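user:
I keep going back and forth on a fold encoding question. Separate attempts, laid side by side, tell us more than any discussion would. Would you put together a sequence-and-structure record for a protein of your own picking? Write it directly below this note and I will take it from there.

assistant:
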Amino acid sequence: MPGENLSRDEARVRAGLLSVDGYEVDLDLRSAVGEAPDGPGPRTFRSVTTIRFRSAEPGAAAFADLIAPRVTAVTLNGRALDPATVFDGSRVTLEDLRAENVLVVDAQCAYSRTGEGMHRFVDPEDGEVYLYTQYEPADARRVFATFEQPDLKAPYRFRVTAPEGWRVWSNGAGTLGDDGVWRFAETKPISTYITTILAGPYHHVTDSYRRTFDDGTVLEIPLGAMCRKGLARHFDADDVFLLTKQGLDFFHDRFDYPYPFGKYDQAFVPEYNLGAMENPGLVTFREEYIFRGKVTRASYEHRANVILHEMAHMWFGDLVTMTWWDDLWLKESFAEFMGTFALVGATRFQDGWITFANNRKSWAYRADQLPSTHPITADIRDLEDAKLNFDGITYAKGASVLKQLVAYVGQDAFLEGARRYFKRHAYGNTSLGDLLAVLEETSGRDMAGWSRSWLETAGVNSLTPEAVYDAEGRITELAVIQEAAPSHPELRPHRVAVGLFRRTADGDLVRYARVETDVAGPRTVITELAGAEKPDLILVNDEDLTYCKIRFDAASLDTLRTHLGALTDPLARALCWSALWSLTRDALMPARDFIGLVLTHAGRETDIGVLQMLHAWARGALTLYAVPEWREEGGRLLAEGALRELRTAEPGGQHQLTWARFFAAVATTDADFQLLQGLLEGTAKIDGLDVDQELRWAFLEPLTAHGRADESAVAAELAHDDTASGKRHEVRCLAARPSAAVKAQAWVRLVESDTLSNALVEATIAGFARSDQRELLAPYAEKYFEVIERVWAERSIQIAMHVVRGLFPAAQGDRSTLEAAEAWLASHEEVAPALRRLVLEATDDLARSLRGQACDAAAAGR
């Protein structure tokens, strides 16, 4: 990564000097198939870029961005420049600029195996080659010469020569000429990071969207959906198109700004690093959203949410783009919020806010308690900072704060502000003040104060109820206590609902009173609930209006211990589960108590997404926060509980499938493994459970990890599923085998070699770094701290992030590992800030784990 970074200051200077009139990009991708024609080194393709741009200061110097193995020729205003002199591997120096300039760069760019730039994938099933691009935040420069920053927008014309028989797509509509060249319509002015190319023998399905507006204007949008040929039999494109049309209708109704980018293609691509990317006219998704086997409703809901998230970006991010990555929230927070807003408002997934409260906000709460937490409007010094800021703060906390904002200003004022924002800044760039200005206009509220509290400070507040009762058991005073961590002491204004719940004669726990009010400062009295009958449960932030950690008074916590499963409102129940997990992470509830709550009440959970989160949290409680001496017993209890629920779940239902996967993940005893083996071989059966290919891999992995299945069993399974997905499962299973030699081999492949693709790096890490193989992983704790600087320097940032995060010796979970991590941080203050942040976060997680174990140890002796 040396020399590839770009600082905010450099970007500001260049934006003040240059304006870009347009790009013409010619790519020759015929080298993607057959033997690599260029000998040793990376496989490359020819990229010829013509950029027309202006300079505010004739005679000044600037630079263009390009990461390529070779540059053949550079011409500036008709003058040939020596590539060896002006190109340093990541930048092309441009001197003596004119008022109007033409730059032509002819380069050999490298195909990627890391998901960055022009990714090349060879399908093991049929040998077909597939290409796609992924650029955010700054990898367009791996495919063509650019001015790689979001505020130098320009229109683009792409021309692509591809292998015979291929199809090619880009942002604009394309046609294949008689000369074999694909030519694409010029785009609207957009940023470099959302330009895109897709090429290969993709399976392609079409549809169309038509909308007649109130003024009689008719909008027709061609729709396309693509995937690898090998996945075509699994591709439910009709559902993708249904959600797409529902989303377009929803956003047209709310935004009063027609979709501006012509066609709307959606491609599901292999080995994708992200969930999806909002390239206008051609959105790309990870192909795991095409389901090869039976999945739960939660999986379909998640896919729908991602489709709508990316669609919201067409307005928030593509039409109007942040000036620099400091204001990344202007696109990601809004897309995150609008995705769920549209999910609930336009599709069959009416419970989307439950998933948001229980799943997405959990991500935000974790991120906001790390030492690397930052305000939603972050201080992004350079591209490495930007890469790491696609995090729980920018996405989930930002969306949570926008949900609070809607409650603060009102939905009508919020949407009218969005409409004015689009019309005022279409095809331009903005910063925080631009959005606040329109919201002040439409709401009449002081947005500066709100922004200071919510957008410009970090940290999460906790809200705890405090109730006093009279002799008859009625509330005489109910207050909400607000607290903040000493490191982030801001006490914020909150719009909250406070709900009172009590048990009924038939045992249900139901809401009988609720008030919506403002909370500010350290203590707020809720006068509206004075005189109410004594509740069994007081829920602060009922209905999840604000962003906070929910705490309970002692009586409410006692109620939840015995009656959580009886809570009838699914959103309230999800909020309580999330709050209990927060107590566990904060070492205020012993891990064994949380696991006990899951074993007691999870079987009554109706929302499948919440149930899946409970399973993940229960495993986390066991492996991170329970004392090591209790983990064997705790694992046995979880496996027994999972098997009990599996056997009693509705045959063939999604709860049965979810409990089956959880049982496989926590299997512990000989009997557990014998059952898994029997389900694989067909000698055992659970009524209604269809052990399809994906479930077979889920059963095989724990068998290999515990030495109950060997390499030949994995090879036999791959023979049944010799696909890209099967290959990833195989690699993970092989790396999970309980052998010192296996771990050594995996370590070499991850650290000493760069031959694995991004997807196989992830799979190898998942198999290698199992929390239940602590002794096998112990030799790599010291090695980790010896190699991470070199990994960071030598590998692409995406792969380096995978390795640094994934190989941190968390499985050791002991004081000596924490001390080693702290010592590395103390002696490496000058390393790349992004690398330091990753290690700092992992170290903080480990320290939190040890605090949780101390809490659990205290519970063991009570």
